[in-house]
Amino acid sequence: xxxxxxxxxxxxxxxxxxxxxxxxxxxxxxxxxxxxxxxxxxxxxxxxxxxxxxxxxxxxxxxxxxxxxxxxxxxxxxxxxxxxxxxxxxxxxxxxxxxxxxxxxxxxxxxxxxxxxxxxxxxxxxxxxxxxxxxxxxxxxxxxxxxxxxxxxxxxxxxxxxxxxxxxxxxxxxxxxxxxxxxxxxxxxxxxxxxxxxxxxxxxxxxxxxxxxxxxxxxxxxxxxxxxxxxxxxxxxxxxxxxxxxxxxx
Length: 250
Hints:
By secondary structure, the chain is of the alpha+beta class. It is built from eight helices and 17 strands. It has helices spanning 3-6, 15-21, 27-35, 98-101, 128-135, 156-163, 200-207, 238-247; strands at 13-14, 39-41, 44-45, 52-53, 60-62, 65-67, 75-80, 109-110, 119-125, 143-150, 165-167, 170-172, 176-182, 186-193, 212-220, 223-224, 233-235. Strands 7, 8, 9, 10, 13, 14, 15, 16 and 17 form a nine-stranded mixed β-sheet that branches. Strands 3-2-5-6 form a four-stranded antiparallel β-sheet. Strand 5 (60-62) and strand 6 (65-67) form a beta hairpin. Helix 2 crosses helix 3. It starts with a helix and ends with a helix. The mean pLDDT is 92. Belongs to the pseudouridine synthase RsuA family. InterPro entries: PsdUridine_synth_cat_dom_sf, PsdUridine_synth_RsuA/RluA, PsdUridine_synth_RsuA/RluB/E/F, PsdUridine_synth_RsuA/RluB_CS, RsuA_PseudoU_synthase, S4_RNA-bd, S4_RNA-bd_sf. Keywords: Isomerase, RNA-binding. Residues 13-72 form the RNA-binding S4 domain.
């Protein structure tokens, strides 16, 4: 008996139906994906259309990306505004992330934090394992920030920050540093890094003599800020969610 046949659950649902219900595509499209060897069940590539699986326990991937089968799981991206604290409640009465997701059916928890003066993308989810892995340093989840800073930044700063500097809590370096605009009084820079240390971009730029005026996180993992406006929320699903899960080995 093949490994694929071992996966067959006579009491389960047809694989193409499970995929279609998860939003991968029509049943016909899902059948084609299976026939092309692009679908795996519990790590085994499946090409047989008659395979039945248990959607409550099976782990499915399409083109290497995890497919979320649990319809109770919800992940959203929020464009956090300046002045909003990255908590779900605040004893000082300040605006919180909860104010923007209170109409959603699930209770959500934020993944990491943005300081109160920083804008940009922050994820909220009720998937505890996904949240844990995204926040864990070992997965080195990439993030992108755009900052307006004081002073005229020169291109030489790229080598300095990509080589690394030392802060009071240890060394740090940018994965990529780009000077987008250099003005007489202010400059605009873009920084990619995977560190989740507190106020890390502000501290880095302060250390090299260019204090941050405004800061926006434009990307978290593979989730881009895109067309989101301040205060807006959108659901993360489909292949985008699959790619996010795959980044942290889910």
